[in-house]
Sequence to fold (839 residues):
Amino acid sequence: MSRSAKDHKGRPVVVVTGIGIVTSVGEGKEDNWENLTAGVSGVRKISRFPTDGLRTQIAGTIDWKGDSRYCAPIHSISLAKKSAAEAIEQSGIGSRGSFPGPLFVANSPAETNWDQRMVVYNEEAGAGSTGYERLLKNVRAGNFDRYYSLFQFASIAEHLADEFGTRGQPISLTTACASGATSVQLGVEAIRRGDTDAALCIGTDGGICEEMVVRFNLLSALSTQNDDPQGASKPFSKARDGFVMAEGSATLVLESYEGAKARGAKILGVVRGAGERADTFHRTRSTPDGSAVIETITRSMADAGMSPAEIDCINAHGTSTPENDKMEFLALSAALGDELENTPISSNKSMIGHTLSAAGTIEAAISLLTIQNGVIPPTINCNEQDPNILMDVVPNEKRIKSVNSVMSNSFGFGGQNVCLIFSAEPS
Amino acid sequence: MSIEKTEVWVTGIGLVSSLGEGLDTHWEQMTTGKVPVPPVDMEDQAPYPVHTIVDIDVGAQIPKRSDQRQMGPWQHLGVYTAGLALDDAGISHNPELLAATNMIIAAGGGERDLDVDTTIMEKIHGADNPGPLLNEALNSELRPTLFLAQLSNLMAGNISIVHGVTDSSRTFMGEEAAGVSAVETAVAQIQHGQGEIFLVGGAYIAERADMSMLMEFGHTLWQGEPGSVWSREDTDGGMVMGSAGAFLILESRQHAEARGAKPYARINKVVSDRCNRQAGAARQVADSLFEQVSDQVPKGPLPVLSGCCGVQPQLNEEHDFLKGLSDHGIDPAIRGVSTLFGNTLEAQLPLSVILASLAISKGSFFDPFDESGAEKVFSGQPESVLISNWGHWRGESLALVEKPDAPLRGDE
Fold:
C-alpha cells in the first residue's frame, strides 16, 4: 500500500472522482463553470405559480421545458438524477444502474404540497365533510398509490436508489442549510471506516412553492428586492437584505484513494477534512460570540491536519442575510487569524441563490472546480462592500489564482454547522 | 483482520409510549403473566385505531416556556424523551460530556397545523383562480413558530438548545428505515472510533390526520379492532399507527467504564438493506441479512422482537422469515412489538432496541403479546435478542442486542 493511501491520522484518504451539477445558472459542470466565472446570475421572477401578495417574488427556480404540473419530490428527484448521472459518468465507476457503494441524499422533506392536497380535496367522495375528514374520505375511496410512494419522507432517496442501484439502505438526511455538506461528511466517514470503497453523495432541492416562500418570508429571511432579481443576492455587501431561494442539485462520487487508483480513475480532488459543532443559542441564530462556528472551522482544519496558512481560498456560506455574513466574517477572523487577510472568499450564492438542502454539495462541487481550474468565481452584486466585513470577497470579477485547497462553509437553522476542506491530489 | 472492534453499550434509555413513561411501567405491563391489553383509541382517527401517547410533563424536561412555545407536540415528545435518556445515562448538566455527545435523530417531516390547513382548504376550494387566494391565505394563517415546528432537523436543534448536546448533529429522515440507519450509523461510528458517545432515537405521534392521510395514500391502514398483528395474516393486512419517544445513549465500553456508567446491554450488530418490494424480495433481503449476523446468534430458544407492522404481503413474508429461523437451529420466541405499541415509524427500531435492552438487563423476556400461540413463552435468561424491523414501504433490517458480558462469538 502506498503511503499516500492513508492520511495524517492513518485513515484511508478519500478522493472525488465524479462531479455533477445542476443549478439556476446552468446544467452540467461546463455550463455552470462558464456562467459562474462570467458572473451570471440565475435568479429570476418566479413564474411557476402566481406571486400576487407575496413579499418575495423572485427565486433561482429551475423549470424544465415541457414540465407538467409541479410536484416537489418529483422535481428534486429529477434534479438529482441529472447531477448524479453526470458525476457517475465522469467517474466511470460501476456499471449502468449499479453503483458499488451507499447513497447519502441531502434533501428537504418530501411533503404533500398544496397542489396535491387540493387534488385530493377536490374529489367528491368526501363532499359534505371538511378539512382532513374530507381528505381522508377521498383518499379511502380513490387510488393514490403514486402519492404514497412520492410523499414518504424518505421517498427521494428511495427513488434515487432504484435509479442508480446503490448498495444498502440509502440515507435521507437533513441538517437544514448544512445538509449538502453533511451528505459529503457521511460518505467520508463510511469510507474512512472501511465500510465501502465508494459512496454517492447527493444534495438536491427542488422545493420552491408558495408555502416555502411564505414560511421564509415570515422569518424575514428572504430578499424582497423583486425589481432587480439578478441583483438581489448580494452577500457581504452593505445593502444585503436576505437570501434568495433557489433550486439545484450536485453529486460527488467519493472513493478511497486506493480504490480509485486501483481502477485507474482520474482523481479530481481530495476531501481533506470535515468539522462540525452544533450550536445551542437559538433556532435561527448563532451564538453571538461565534464560538460554535469558530470551532466548526478549527475542527475541520484539525481533521484535515492543515493550518490556516494552507487554506488558499474559502467558498463562503455567504447567504446575503445581514446576520449570516457578519457571523461568517467574525468566525473566520477568529479561526484563521491574520491569514484571513490573504485568503480570498467568494459566495456562489450571489449568482445561484441559496439552494438550501443542496447548497453544501453544490458548493463542494464548485470548490473542486476552483482547484481544478485555478480560477475563483466572483461574489457578484458587490457594489458597496459592508465596511464591517473586512475580507477579500473577490468582488464582481473572477480571479485567476493557483488554488491548492478550498474551505467550504455551511451553516443551517437549528444550530447546524459543517465545514469541509478539499485539496488537489498531491503530486 | 484480527483487530477487535470497540464494543457498543447501551448506557441510557428514555422511553415514553402509549403504555406510559419509563422502563418500570413498561416492564410491569409486559410481564403480568397474561397477554397484555394494548391501549388503543378507536375514536381519535376513526375509522383507524391508534395508540395515543400518554400525557407528559413537558416542563420537567423543557423548563423554559419560551422554548416550549417554539415546538409542537412531536418536538416536545422528542426533546422530552431525549432528556430522559441523558438523565438516565448521567450526562445531563455535564457540559464536558454533552459537548462530546454526538446526535443522530430519526425524524419525519415535522408537524403541520391542521386547523390552518383546514381553513386554507375551505378558502380555496372551488375557486376559479385559486393561486392568489392561496397566497393570501398562507400570508394570513401561517406563523413563524409553525414553520420551525415543521422543520425535521429542529428536533435535533431543540435538543441542542434545551439539553446542550453539541458535538455532531445529524437528522435522518423518513420512516422506519431512518430509525434503523440512525442506530446502525451510531454503532458503526463507535465501533470505528468516530465518536465515543451518541444520543440516538426518534419520536412519532399517531394522532395526526396528515400522517393518517400519508399512510392511507397506499391504503395501508387497518380499520376496526386491531387484534394481534399476527391475527391479520389471513387478511389483506393493514397497520395501526403508534406513538412513542424512544431514545438511547450508546457508548463505547471504554468510555462508559472510565466514567463508571453501567450498561443495560451491548449492541452487537445492526444490518439493513432494501428492495423494491416485489413479491418475495423482502424475504430474500432478510435471508441475506441473517447470513451477516448468523455467526453471532446463539442456537436454541431465542427471544425475537419483530417490528412487523401488518401491511401485506410483508406481514406474511416477515413472519415466514422469522418462523424459518428454525432451519438454522434457532427456536424463536417472537413478540410482535406493533401489537402492543402500534407502528411508531422512525421510533420503531430504537423502541425495539430499548425493549431488548430492558429484557436483557432484567434477565427475563416478555410474556407473549398474542393468544394464538404464534408467540412462544421464553422462560430462560436472554443472552441475546434478535430484532427484525421492516418498513411499511421500504427497508429491511436486523439488529442483535446481547448481554454486555456475553462472549463474542467467532467474529471475522
Remarks:
- Chain B touches chain A through 79 residues (CB under 8 Å).
- The radius of gyration of chain B is 21 Å.
- Chain B has a mean pLDDT of 95.
- The longest strand of chain B covers residues 8-17.
